[in-house]
Amino acid sequence: MIRPVFEPESLPIESTGADLPPVDPARLTPEGLRARFAQRLPWDPEPQEARKADIRDPREAAVLVPLVVRAAGLSVMLTQRADNLSNHAGQVSFPGGSREPADATPAAAALREAQEEVDLDPARVEVLGALPDYLTGTGFRVTPVIGLVHEPFTVTADSLEVASIFEVPLAFLMNPANHEVRVFRWEGGERRFFAMPYPQQGAAVGADHFIWGATAGMLRNFYRFLRA
């Protein structure tokens, strides 16, 4: 079934995660994250955008979830994709893309793509591990690779793929009160998705970085993982 085009920012908020428990602040540190990835604790990922039965031959992809180590705390590096791209144009996303034959692992693909898209030196990234694959409605099976980005480093957007680069505090994204569930209904179906709008610094009220879809879904899984 073909899903119609819609404007996610304009859709109503059905619920938030304000009633859910917060993540222990000690886990939102480099030491806490290293300890969590060293553990094998059971946890339940959120339902995915698509079912395996809907996507018979998904394309393998990987994204880097870059957790920047700052004096004020960890922040998540995100990109605003260029408007000319064929997939997810204009959306907020992690650096990443399709896995190529030369990529030995999903982590290798994520690091390569991050270097290509934002010129992030792989040597500045400490890979911690990965979350479960995320199947998107556009036909990708995405492996989210979590990594700490250590200073000093610089980033520069590849203008063909990335319109801008920005950071959001990890504490904001791991606060379930900031996790919205929005719903889109049309004749023949409905779709629910997570959204995590983050105010742009210096911009007018309501001018948010609108984090939604697969990116927000993977961040929600990260919350579930850290809460286990």
Short description:
This protein is of the alpha+beta class. The chain has helices spanning 30-37, 106-118, 170-173, 213-227, and strands at 13-16, 59-70, 73-81, 92-93, 96-98, 125-130, 134-135, 140-149, 162-169, 180-186, 189-199, 208-212. It has a single domain (12-37, 58-227), classed as Nucleoside Triphosphate Pyrophosphohydrolase.
If you had to describe this structure to a student in words, what would you say it looks like?
With about 230 residues, this protein is an alpha+beta fold. It has one domain (about 10-35, about 60-225): Nucleoside Triphosphate Pyrophosphohydrolase (Alpha-Beta Complex). It is built from 4 helices and 12 strands. It has helices at about 30-35, 105-120, 170-175, 215-225, and strands at about 15, 60-70, 75-80, 90-95, 95-100, 125-130, 135, 140-150, 160-170, 180-185, 190-200, 210. The strands form 2 sheets. Strands 2, 3, 4, 5, 6, 7, 8 and 9 form an 8-stranded mixed beta sheet that branches. Strands 1-10-11-12 form a 4-stranded antiparallel beta sheet. A hairpin with a 4-residue loop joins strand 7 (about 135) and strand 8 (about 140-150). The longest helix is centred in the C-terminal third of the chain and has 15 residues, at about 215-225. The termini are far apart. The model has no long low-confidence stretch (mean pLDDT about 90).
Distance between the termini: 35 Å
Give me the strand/helix succession: EHEEEEHEEEEHEEEH
Report low-confidence residues grouped into runs of 5 or more.
none
CATH superfamily: Nucleoside Triphosphate Pyrophosphohydrolase
CATH architecture: Alpha-Beta Complex
